[in-house]
Specification:
4-stranded mixed beta sheet; 4-stranded antiparallel beta sheet; 20 strands; extended
Length: about 625
């Protein structure tokens, strides 16, 4: 965490608070382990520590902002769900509290002078190589942070680093392991191969009635017709109810006033830019700027598309700028020019002509977003109320059609469907519930992300196994395929043996399989096998020169040999060893850290305020 802070402090435009540590794979929250119904301010208890609602809210807002900047126009509510952002944030907060508990147990502390020392090392806060208090305050203000908040987070990061070092410093990487990993990734082979399918041998298969009967008796479940259900249902979809509800202006304003932290307005600067290709041009432009207006110099020398406009970039968010640019312009006053900034292979000079401090986006700018959110929530509530009303009508004897007509809705009747087939154009949960309800009965209200449903089971057909005469064609096809596979596997060893002696083409010809195409793979490695199964690739790497092997692939087999092998030189291995050892060590430390947190959660009780969590 602290290293991430040090790296990103080059520009505070990147949020410092979230370490995305293989997020989905390393969420260790055990939701059923220790729930409690606490107050409205405590979200979780971790030993003798607590995670408060406000801590979660602040961390979630920062994480939300982080991903919004990373994914930009691809950022969406659906992405938030796929990232498990809520769980990720709470997981990180719980881990921080676990570290505090361990630090207290072990007497590990962070002293004020350590915090001061750490902050003073950060290049972002230096002017001419020395810590600049004014620049420190300015940068924190640009990122909506107080010195107390920032210093508290630095202290927590130092504490985390101290505690985790006790765990991670035990990791070691033997040189042989690094060498093996280099070979695993960089050694490559090209395969010469042919794929054979059972259909090539079906003409050689002979079957009789006894084969069919035996197969049928031994594989009856293959022919089972699953249970099927037919239902009628009334959908109460949120999108349909959005047309029935309205949200008053007063309610929108109230939401805005109570949740302003959801609508941060980052600081903005009005910038002009000159883009240059090399240092020779840079020297020429520096001289020109001494006597000419910035826009005039931009029109004459800049290679930027904005040159025709005098380099005018308009108003931009500081946090959206690349790190070196944000650092260069963040402390400039109106009218000041930046030092040349190297961005990629170009040099850029910026001029600040205006500033807008960060704060909260104006109401008019976010009104539409809030209205849409509140409209959806109002529609959801109205849909639920209407579904409850319909349920009461149905219980009192109204038919599905009568209830739907009264409420201005419609009834949908499904075809017969199995669990696997599901209901066309309906959520899978509806089909799941249908199989739990007795024939002729009504379901409770079924909740889905799109709305609510009530269903009635019209018909149920039990699962059954049809007699052989009804599935004879299917049985015959299955028997032929089974026998063809058995014959193919039997011939495979002989084919591999002959290929070594005659070559693959000769072996195929001698077995009457000349029509089978011989192909070559691109160069593949064990780390990047492409479409090839990793077991086949491992087997290929073990083959001696000229040797053939075969393996099952899908319904058939593939017979193969190594056509070309590309090794790794000792010089390359030696050059890569330090980098690979470092990568493996980092991975091993992460594994140790994850395991340590798992063990801690077994020892230190973690309880989630389930009621508050569900309300978030």
């Amino acid at each position: 965490m602290l290293r991430t802070m040090r790296e990103n402090m080059k520009s505070l435009s990147m949020v410092l608070w979230i370490v995305v540590a293989a997020f989905i794979g390393t969420i260790f929250l055990v939701w059923g382990k220790g729930g409690f119904r606490g107050n409205r301010t405590t979200l979780a208890k971790v030993g003798n520590r607590v995670v408060t609602y406000m801590e979660f809210k602040r961390s979630y807002a920062r994480a939300y902002d982080f991903y919004r900047k990373i994914f930009k126009d691809k950022f969406s509510e659906d992405l938030i769900k796929r990232l498990h952002l809520k769980e990720q944030v709470l997981n990180n907060l719980i881990n921080d509290k676990l570290i505090e508990v361990v630090a207290q147990e072990e007497g590990i502390k962070v002293y004020p002078q350590e915090v001061v020392s750490e902050i003073s090392k950060m290049e972002a806060f230096k002017t001419n190589g020395r810590f600049d208090p004014q620049k420190y305050r300015q940068l924190l203000q640009l990122n909506r942070l107080t010195p107390a908040e920032f210093e508290r987070d630095i202290k927590n990061s130092l504490l985390k680093e101290k505690v985790l070092s006790l765990v991670k410093d035990s990791a070691v990487v033997p040189p042989a392991e690094a060498r093996d990993e280099i070979l695993y990734v960089m050694e490559k082979i090209k395969l010469k191969y042919a794929e054979l399918m059972p259909k090539l041998f079906i003409s050689k298969v002979k079957i009789n009635e006894g084969d069919l009967e035996a197969y049928y008796q031994n594989h009856k479940e293959e022919f089972r017709v699953p249970e099927k259900v037919k239902i009628a249902y009334i959908p109460f979809l949120i999108k349909d109810f959005e047309k029935r509800v309205k949200v008053k202006e007063e309610k929108i304003k109230k939401y805005y006033q109570e949740n302003m932290e959801e609508f941060p307005a980052p600081p903005k600067v009005h910038l002009f830019v000159i883009t240059l290709k090399d240092k020779k041009e840079l020297r020429k432009v520096k001289d020109a700027l001494k006597t000419q207006a910035f826009s005039a110099v931009a029109r004459r020398y800049s290679h930027d598309p904005l040159a025709a406009k005098g380099g005018d970039m308009g108003w931009v968010e500081v946090t959206s700028l690349p790190a070196p640019v944000a650092q260069a312009v963040s402390s400039l006053k109106e009218g000041e020019l930046s030092q040349p900034v190297e961005v990629g292979k170009e040099f850029k000079i910026f001029k600040v002509v205006g500033r807008k401090e960060g704060g909260v986006k104006p109401f008019d700018e976010v009104k539409g977003v809030i209205e849409k959110r509140l409209l959806k929530e109002a529609a959801r509530k109205e849909a639920l109320r209407t579904a409850a009303r319909a349920r009461q009508m149905l219980k009192k004897g109204s038919s599905m059609e009568e209830a739907a007509k009264t409420l201005g809705l419609s009834v949908v009747t499904s075809p017969l469907f199995s669990k696997k087939e599901g209901i066309p154009k309906a959520p899978s949960k509806l089909a799941q519930v249908a199989f739990e309800v007795a024939e002729g009965s009504l379901s409770d209200i079924v909740r889905t992300k799109d709305g609510f449903y009530i269903l009635k089971v019209l018909e149920k057909r039990a699962s059954y196994i049809p007699p052989l005469k009804d599935v004879k064609n299917r049985a015959e096809e299955a028997v032929r395929l089974q026998k063809a596979k058995e014959l193919l596997y039997k011939e495979a060893d002989q084919l591999a043996s002959q290929a070594k002696a005659k070559g693959l083409a000769g072996a195929l010809k001698s077995m009457g399989l000349s029509e089978v195409k011989i192909e070559f793979s691109p160069l593949i490695s064990r780390a990047a096998p492409g479409p090839w199964d990793s077991q086949i690739v491992d087997k290929a790497f073990d083959l001696d020169e000229g040797e053939y092997a075969w393996a099952k692939k899908g319904e058939g087999i593939v017979i193969f040999t190594v056509a070309k092998k590309q090794g790794v030189s000792e010089e390359t291995i030696k050059r890569l060893m330090p980098k690979v050892e470092k990568a493996i060590l980092s991975r091993r430390r992460k594994e140790l850290e994850d395991q340590w947190f798992k063990e801690l959660r077994k020892r230190i009780e973690v309880k989630i305020n389930e009621k508050l969590w569900r309300a978030l």
